[in-house]
Amino acid sequence: MMVILGALLLVGISVFLILQPIVAGREAPLWSSGEEPTEAQFRKRVSLLQLRDAEYEFAMGKLGETDYEMLRRELSAEALAAIREEEAEAEGRTSADYAEASADIEDEIAQVRIRLRGGSFCSECGHPNPGGSRFCAECGTPLRVPEPSGQGQA
Amino acid sequence: VTALGEFALWIALPISFWGMAMGFVGGRQGRGDLILSGERSVYVVFALLAIASLAITNAFLTDQFQYYYVANYSNRDLDTYFKLSGLWAGQRGSLVFWAVLLAFFASITVFQNRNKNREFMPYVVGVLQGILGFFLVVLLFAKVNPFQQLGFVPPDGAGLNPQLQNYWMTIHPPVLYLGFTAFAIPFSFAMASLMIGRTDSRWIVVTRRWTLVSWFFLTNGIIFGMRWAYEELGWGGYWFWDPVENASLLPWLTATAFLHSIMIQENRGMLKIWNMSLVLLTFLLTIFATFLTRSGLIESVHSFAQNTSIALVFLAFMGSIFIASVILIIYRLPGLRAENQIESFLSREAAFLFNNLVLLGAAFAVLWGTIFPLVSEAATGQPVAVGPPFFNRVNIPIGLILLALTGIGPVIAWRRATRRNLKRNFAIPVILGLVVVAVFLAMGARNGYALATFGISTFVLAIVATEFWKGTRARARIEGEGFGPALIHLIGRNRRRWGGYIVHVGVVLIFTAFAGSAFDVEVRKVLNPGETVTVASPFGHTYTLVYEGISSSVEENFDQWVALMSVQRNGERVGAMTTSRRFYRVNRQMVTEVGIRSTALEDLYVILADVEDFEGMVGNDPNAQRIVVQVMVNPLVGWIWYGGVIITIGALIALWPVAEARRRSAALEPAMAGGS
C-alpha cells in the first residue's frame, strides 16, 4: 500500500513538473540574457590574448625579434579589424549598451598599456616599441631610453 | 523503500525520452514552454535516478537478499563500508550509478546555463536525455535490472569478490565514472553546436572546464585503479595491460589529445573537424569502457560481470551515435573549414598536432591489442591473447615521445618559433638530461628505455623550472615585487598555462616511476621462524627480513593468517611489517594481502605466497609455521602516487574559478586565458 502511494506520488510530482510549463505557459528564455560575446568580440579577445602571449613569449626569449614584430603587427591588425566590426555591430544599441561598450574600451586600453609597459613611443613616427628597444622598429629612429620606473600597475 | 527504486526507474524512462523530444522540438520551433519542460525533465530524471540509487544502497545495508543483485554482491558479514559501495560493485548497479552521475552533471549544466548559452541548451538537453534514456532502456530491458527478484529469500548472499574488498576499490570506480560521465557534457555541446550550425569555438569555450574536470577525474581514477592493483592483486605491479585497464586508458588518451587540440582551435581557428571527431571518439570510448568493464566480453582480471546480451545493445547505441554524429559533421562541413593554416613546422600548433597524432597512435595500438582476441576469435575461432610484451613494445617508445613533448611544447612559440631561440632554450635542459644519463650509466644502469626516460624527464623538469624561473623573474622586475608574490601573481594571471606545466611535472614523475620498474628486484624463499631472507635494493643497500612467526585469527568475514617480519636495513633494525593471507568464508576464496613498506625512493613489498600447513597452524603446532614469501624491492613506485598528487594540484590551479571571471560572468572570460 505504502509503496503504491509512494509510486503514485512520484508519478504525480514528475508529471506535474514537466507538464506545468506547457499547461501554464511558462517559458524558458530562448536567448541568453547576460553579456555573451558576439563573434567580433570573441575574435577581438582572441587577438588581444594572442598579443599578450606573443609579448610573453618574446620576453621569455622564445620568439625572435623580427618574428615578434611581424606577429605583433598581424595581430594588432586582426584586433583592430575586430574592434571596428564590433563598433559597427554596436551601432543602434541603447545607451546602456554604450556604457558597457565603453567599459570594454577601457579594458582594451588597459591591455594596450600593459603591453607597452616598459616600452616607448617613437618620437618621429609614434610607433610603440617594446621595452629595451634602442631603435624604432618602424622607422629606425634612435629611441631615448625611458627612465626606469617602478610604477607597477597600469 | 527499495521497491520504490524500481518504480523510479520505470518513471524515469518515459520522462527522459519526453525530455529528449521536448529539447529537440522546442529548440527547432523556438517554443520556450517546451524547452522549459525539457529542462525540468533533467532535474526530474536526476531525482528519480537518485531515488533508485538510494534504494539499491538501502537494499545492501539491510541485507535484502531477495534481490539478485544484492545476493550476488554482498553477504551479512560484509563490512558496512563495502555494502555502501555495493552500488558500483557489479554491472547492474554500475549502470544505475553511471546514469545518476550523468543526470547529476546534466542538472548542473542546465542550472548553470539557465540564462546563458540559450541557443545550445535545448539540443544539449535533447542529447543528454537521449543518453540517459539509452541507459534506462538497458537497465529495464537488457536483463540487467538491479531490482530483479529471485523469488525466494536466500539466508545469506554470495559475498563480494574478495579482491574488491579494498578501500581503493570503493573510490576508484566512482572517480573513473565521474570522468566518463563528465565527458558527456562537452560531447552534448559539440552535437548541439552542429545541430544549430554554430561552427565557431563557442562550444569549446563553454565546455573546456568540463573537459578539464573529466580529464582530472579520469586521470585520478586510473591512478587509483593502479593503486588498487598494486595493493590487492599482489604480484608487485600496477598495470597489466588488461582489457579493462586499457578501456579506461583509451578515453584518457583521446581526452588528453582533445585537451591540447582545443587550444589550437581557440587560438587559431584550426582543427575544427578534428576536434569534433575527437570529442565524438572520446565519448564513444567512455561508453565502450563502461560497456567493456561490465560486459565480460573479453577475459579480464576485472570481468566481474557475465552477460553478453547487453553487448549488442551497447554496440547498437555506439553505432547509432557514431553514424548520427558523422552525418552531422558532414552536413556542417563547409562551416568547419579552418580559418588559418599552420605557418611553420616549428610552432606550438605543429607540436600540439604532433602530440595529438602520437596520442591517437597510442590509442589505436591499445584498442587493437584489446579487441584483437575478439577479432581473432571471430576470424579463426581461436582467441589469441595479446599480452604485456606487445603493449610495452609499442607504447614505451610512444610514451617517450609524449614525455619529450611535454617539455618541447611549452617552449615553442605559437605560429613560428625561431631556430636560434629554440637552440638557446633547449641547450641547458638537453645538457642536463645527458648528464643524468651519463651518471646513471656510470652507476651501472643498462636499461635503454629507463635511461632515456630519466634523461628526458630531467630535460622536461629543467624546462618547466626555467619557465617558472624566467616568468617569475620577469614579473618581479617589471612589477617591482618580491619573488614569492611575483610567482603567485604569475600563476594567477594565466592559471591554465601554469597549471598545465605543473601537470606536466606530475606526468614526468609518473613516467620516472614506470622506468623505475625496470630495476625491480625479487626474491622467493621458504622460511621457518627465525630464518631470514635478504634482498639487495638497486639503490645499493640491502634489506634483511627476519621471519618472526605467524598467527591466525577468525575475523567477521574471513579467516586470516598474518606473518610478522622484522626488517633490517644494512643490518640495522628499522621496523616490522606483516603480510597475510585471507580466506573469505562465504566466497570460499583465498587472497593475499601484501605487506608494503614505502619510502620516498622505493617500496619493500612482501607477499605471503604460501602457508604450508594451515591446519597444523590452527592447532598451534610449533612445527607448522613454514611459509613461502616473495620479497620485492620496487624502486620509485611511490612516485606514481606523488605524481598523481602533483597532477591534482596542477589541474585544480587550472580549474579554480577566477574571482575576476566570476565578477564579469564566465561568458566574457577570455577565450583562452593566454595560450600555454
Give an account of the 3D structure.
The complex is a heterodimer of chains A (154) and B (676). With 154 residues, chain A is mainly α. Helix content of chain A is 60%, strand content 3%. A two-stranded antiparallel ribbon of chain A has the order 1-2. In chain A, a hairpin with a 6-residue loop joins strand 1 (120-121) and strand 2. The longest helix of chain A is centred in the middle third of the chain and has 26 residues, at 65-90. The termini of chain A are far apart. Residues 145-154 of chain A have low confidence and may be disordered. Chain B is globular. Mean pLDDT of chain B is 87; it is low at 300-305 and 660-676. The interface between A and B is large, with 50 and 66 residues.
List the helices and strands and how they pair.
The complex is a heterodimer of chains A (154) and B (676).
Chain A: H1 2-24, H2 39-59, H3 65-90, H4 95-116, E1 120-121, E2 128-129
Antiparallel strand pairs in A: 1-2
Helix pairs in contact in A: 2-3
Chain B: H1 2-29, H2 32-61, H3 68-73, H4 80-84, H5 91-112, H6 121-141, H7 167-182, H8 184-196, H9 202-233, H10 243-268, H11 272-293, H12 309-331, H13 348-380, H14 388-411, H15 419-442, H16 448-479, H17 483-493, H18 495-516, E1 521-527, E2 532-536, E3 542-554, E4 558-569, E5 572-584, E6 589-593, E7 595-598, E8 602-611, H19 614-618, E9 627-635, H20 638-655, H21 659-663
Helix pairs in contact in B: 1-2, 1-6, 2-5, 2-6, 5-6, 5-7, 6-8, 7-9, 8-9, 8-11, 9-10, 9-20, 10-11, 10-13, 11-12, 13-14, 14-16, 14-18, 15-16, 16-17, 16-18, 17-18, 18-20
